[in-house]
Amino acid sequence: MIRFEQLEVRYGSRVALQGVDLELGPGVTGILGPNGAGKSTLLKTLLGLLKPNAGQGWVLGIPLGSPESVRLREQVGYMPEYDALVEDVSAFEQVAFWGELSGMAAPQARDRAHEVLHFVGLDESRYRAVSGYSTGMRQRVKLAQALVHSPGLLFLDEPTNGLDPDGRSRMLDLVLKVRDQLGASVLLSSHLLEDVERCADHLVILDQGCLKASGSMNGLRSRLARRCELRFLDPLTPGQEAALQELGSLLATRNGLYDLELLEPDPVAPFRWAQAQGAVLVQLTPRHDRLDEVLLRALHG
Predict the structure, then answer these.
(1) What is the CATH topology of the domain spanning 225-300?
(2) Which residue among 6, 128, 137, 204 has its CA within the 20 to 30 Å range from the CA of 224?
(3) How far is CA 208 from the centre of its chain?
(4) pTM higher than 0.70 for the full model?
C-alpha cells in the first residue's frame, strides 16, 4: 500500500526525512519516535502536502509528487493532530461538508455522514454545535470526517491527544473497529507506546528523520531482542559454561536451561557457538522485549 525508496524531504536546508526505504502492507501500522523524529512530516508527505526532494514514493500505487497525487484525497482519510473544527456548526454539517470536499455528491455525503457519526458513537449529538462537545467527542468528529468518504487507508496523527483514560480506550477501540469492521488500513502516529502496542500489527520507528526499524510487531520484538533461553542435549561442562560469555551475559541457570542476553540479536549465533563447542543445542526460546525496550534498542542500538 505504501512504498518509499531513498525518500528525502527537506524544509529549506533542514533535512526532515532522509534515505527512507519502507514498504507497508494492510493492517494497522504504528509510527513511533521522539519529538522531531519525522512522524508528522512522513504523514504530510504521504498526503501529498509535501513534495519529496529526493527519492521516490508511492501510496496506493500513485507516485508522490506527481500530478496524479491529487487523486489521493479521494482514497485516503486524514485525522490531524490539532483541532480544526468550526465551532458554531454541527458535527453532521461538518462531516457532510468534508465528504463533499472528498469528491462525494451532496446527497451521498449527507447519508454517509449519518453512518459514520453513528459508527463513532455521536449519532445522538450530531445536530449540536461542536462548541459544546467534550475533547473526546471532538476527536471522534475528526475521525468521522476521515472516514466519511470510505477510504481504504487512514492516517491518524495522535488520535488520543488530550483524552482521559476512558476516552483513550474508546478511541483505540474505534481504531480496531476501522480495521476489523470497515476493512481499512491505518497508519497510527503516536508518542504513546501503550496506544501503539494495543492496536498495531506493524511498527515503524523513526529518529531524526531516519528509519531505525520496521516490520511486524512480533518480528521486531524477536529481531531486536537479545534475551533468549537455551537448552542443550547434555549438560554443559564447566569449560563450556565459562565459554558462554562469548555469546553474551549468563543471567540465570535452572534445570538445564541457560538464560542469556546475547551480545548481538542474532538467533543463529547460539547454534554456531554450540557447534564450535561440541555441544548440541536442542531448544532456543526468544524472550520478547517489551515495546519500550524495542524502541530504545532501535533508537540507541
Answers:
(1) Alpha-Beta Plaits (3.30.70)
(2) 6
(3) 17
(4) yes
